[in-house]
Every structure is written in C-alpha cells, then in structure tokens.
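Appendix C: a fully annotated inverse folding record. The material below is reproduced so that readers can follow the format used throughout the book. The structure is listed first as tokens, followed by the designed sequence.
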C-alpha cells in the first residue's frame, strides 16, 4: 500500500514540478509576502494543482501549505499533507536550479512519505517510512564521518568558529540542502531561526531513511502538524557527528532563540 501511495505521490509531485519548470523561463508576476520573502504566481499555480490532486488521492487528509491559508481543522486529522509548492523560490525567480517541489504525508505527527522533485537539477527524491530513501532510483546513505572537523556543510561562507568545516555548494532550497546530507554529499546542515514545517517535512524523512540524524537546532525531536507549524531551526547531520554538532552549536542556537 505504501509503495502504491508513494508512486502516486511521486507522479503528482512530478506533474507539479513540470508545471513550474515549464514556466521558469517565462514572464510571471512576483512580489514579496514580507521583506526578503519572495513569492510568484507559479507558487500559487503549483499549490492549486497539488491541493486538487492530493486531496483526491486522500480525501480524509488535512492540508498545510506555505501558499494556502491555514485551516486549524488539520489539527484534528491523523494524516496531513505538508507542502511547499516551490521551496527555494528565490532561486526559481532568478532562473537558478536550486529549487524543488516538496511534499510530505504526515501521520500522527511524523512524516511517512516524502518526495522532493527538482527538475532543474534532474533529481527526484523519495522516501517511505521503514523502506529507505532514494534519488533517481539510487538508495541514499548518509556519510560515515565520525569527527566534526572536516565535515562538509552547504553554506555561502563559514564563520570563524567553523573554519575546520568545509563549505560546499548551497542551493536556495533548504529541503535540497538537507537532502544533500541524506545523500552523503554533505555532513552537516544547521539553521538557527524559527522555520516552517513545510520547508523540512519531506527532507526529514529522507534523512531518517538514509540513516542520518535530524533534530531541531537544540537537539530536540521534531514533530509535525503542530498548532504553530514551526520548529526552532533544524540540525541534520551524519549520525556519527550529531552529538558533537549539538555541543558546538547549542550556544549559538540558544543565543538566537533569545534565552538567557
């Protein structure tokens, strides 16, 4: 049943990604929902397509999307679709490849199916709870690095305190940055701000199924379909360095959170 549902989900995500990719080089309306938070008419078109298709696939499931008004009825649902129609809109608008369509099915607060479709990168990522994670048909495995020194992280520049890490290419989509850890192409990804569930839900499942470790930025477990639909940051790592990453980064996370 899970395989059949995952196949259907992947096909819907691919349809949505094809829609977005086909419009990427055209003129389209764009604006800012808030300063530094861009959106475009393609985000809304993809959101509408996904909602129609996914609601038909599982009529009983709730809905949480970056581009839809939140309906608290989802909180009473055991299963909820959590969607980012275009994760990495800034790259999409600029004609760069670092964006993806991100869709997760959450059950009892945890993702059980997850898909990222990144057509500009020719990548299709998929995962099902207990059945592994895959990119373009190749099974994903997190790296076996055991020391934080030398860990690869997708950032534009490393702060002085982290000069023992290695910066690697950073797509705008946080889901794709997390997926890099799942694929063993990066070893550590950390953010220190309140983030939305739709940004990370699908990628969290990819990480877990690839054997990586993922928590909030303080090292606490992640849960989905919460009233606020947010968590404080994300810390995704190869399993052998998560404890060391929490020790190193926790003071910065606490400072960012504004705690004494």
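Designed amino acids, in order:
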């Amino acid at each position: 049943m899970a395989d059949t549902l995952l196949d259907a989900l992947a096909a819907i995500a691919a349809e949505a990604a094809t829609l977005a990719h086909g419009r990427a080089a055209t003129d389209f309306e764009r604006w800012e929902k808030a300063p530094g938070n861009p959106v475009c008419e393609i985000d809304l078109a993809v959101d509408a397509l996904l909602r129609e298709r996914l609601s038909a696939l599982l009529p009983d499931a709730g809905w949480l999307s970056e581009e839809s008004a939140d309906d608290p009825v989802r909180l009473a649902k055991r299963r909820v679709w959590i969607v980012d129609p275009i994760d990495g809109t800034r790259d999409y608008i600029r004609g760069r490849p670092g964006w993806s369509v991100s869709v997760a099915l959450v059950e009892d607060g945890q993702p059980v199916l997850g898909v990222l479709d990144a057509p500009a990168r020719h990548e299709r990522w998929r995962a099902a709870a207990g059945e592994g994670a895959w990119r373009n048909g190749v099974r994903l495995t997190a790296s076996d690095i055991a020391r934080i020194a030398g860990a690869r992280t997708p950032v534009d520049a490393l702060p002085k305190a982290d000069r023992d890490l290695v910066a690697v290419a950073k797509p705008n989509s946080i889901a794709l940055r997390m997926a890099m850890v799942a694929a063993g192409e990066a070893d550590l990804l950390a953010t220190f701000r309140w983030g939305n569930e739709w940004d990370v839900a699908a990628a969290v499942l990819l990480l877990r199924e690839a054997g990586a470790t993922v928590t909030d930025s303080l090292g606490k477990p992640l849960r989905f379909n919460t009233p606020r639909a947010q968590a404080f940051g994300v810390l995704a790592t190869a399993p052998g360095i998560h404890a060391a990453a929490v020790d190193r980064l926790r003071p910065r996370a606490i400072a960012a959170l504004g705690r004494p």
